[in-house]
């Protein structure tokens, strides 16, 4: 998948494209349904499929304090979109200048003049342009005038309720990882490069691989049974279950437990994902890994001493190993 970072890097699409616009946070099963339909349209039109998204997300730009926790960092989102077979990803930097572009200019200057769009798929509640003056109906009218087709994205429901990023966040907050997995069509995971930590875990017999979160607020917190994957480790998989676009091997990952949060026992100030792996010896520093969250064990807690913390971790390990034995 080709990633186009910013409108300044966008050259005119000579043959045009079919496209959709959205945040695609989490790339959940509803998103995947939309993307599958876009791929089908790409085959019908014999044109590349394009996803248009924004960084930061518009809500993060206009109301950063009220914006919800991200399910996926940009890099993870791009990996998931590539796994769905999308040809191109246009990332528009959302700033004050872009927010001043009128709806008409967005259509004429970007969608038509630069992208040569032939088919556009958006939600019927989609709004865009300065003052959110553009909407689905105005896009349909623009399409008639400029020669591109506009369709609304159908609602995708599961267990009697619409699948959405908000619903995934609710499931994660409730610790319902089975529902989360169903909504995402994969386990919920985070990725990052292993970094050096303060090595306190080693002093109580539980060395950890530390993954920085690079996000203001994580969508999950607590202690989990996890599985770690990494191409450098020879244990990779397709990021979306049943999708083989990237040709990942599907080999078994490395089981362990993880704490994600702020480490209150040591007065931590910075969010961190710490993973203790079972039956593994090796150097992970600097390696890019994916961590699947499979079973929630408990909430993050503050302990009065390292000895009490150590005993609790021993109990957590027992529960995690029981979970893996029952899989």
Give a quick precis of the structure:
The protein is α/β, with parallel strands linked by helices.
Describe this structure in words.
The chain has 327 residues and is α/β, with parallel strands linked by helices. The protein folds into two domains: 2-158, HUPs (Rossmann fold, 3-Layer(aba) Sandwich), CATH 3.40.50.620; 190-326, Elongation Factor Tu (Ef-tu), domain 3, CATH 2.40.30. It has ten helices and 16 strands. The strands form four sheets. A six-stranded parallel sheet has the order 1-4-3-2-5-8, with helices on both faces. A six-stranded antiparallel sheet has the order 11-16-13-14-15-12. A hairpin with a 5-residue loop joins β6 and β7 (134-135). α7 packs antiparallel against α8 (177-184). The two termini are 34 Å apart. Mean pLDDT is 89; it is low at 245-251.
Count of beta strands: 16
- Net shape: elongated
Helix content: 25-40%
Look at the structure and name the CATH superfamily of the largest domain. HUPs
Examine the secondary-structure arrangement and name the CATH architecture of the largest domain: 3-Layer(aba) Sandwich
Tally of separate domains: 2
Key attributes of the depicted protein:
327 residues; alpha/beta; Rossmann fold; Elongation Factor Tu (Ef-tu), domain 3; 2 domains; 6-stranded parallel beta sheet; 6-stranded antiparallel beta sheet; 30% helix
Sequence-ordered SSE layout with sheet pairings:
Layout: E1 2-5, E2 17-21, H1 29-45, E3 49-55, H2 58-62, H3 74-83, E4 88-93, H4 96-99, H5 103-112, E5 117-122, E6 127-128, E7 134-135, H6 136-146, E8 149-152, E9 157-158, E10 161-162, H7 165-173, H8 177-184, E11 188-193, H9 200-203, E12 209-212, E13 222-229, E14 254-261, E15 272-277, E16 288-298, H10 306-326
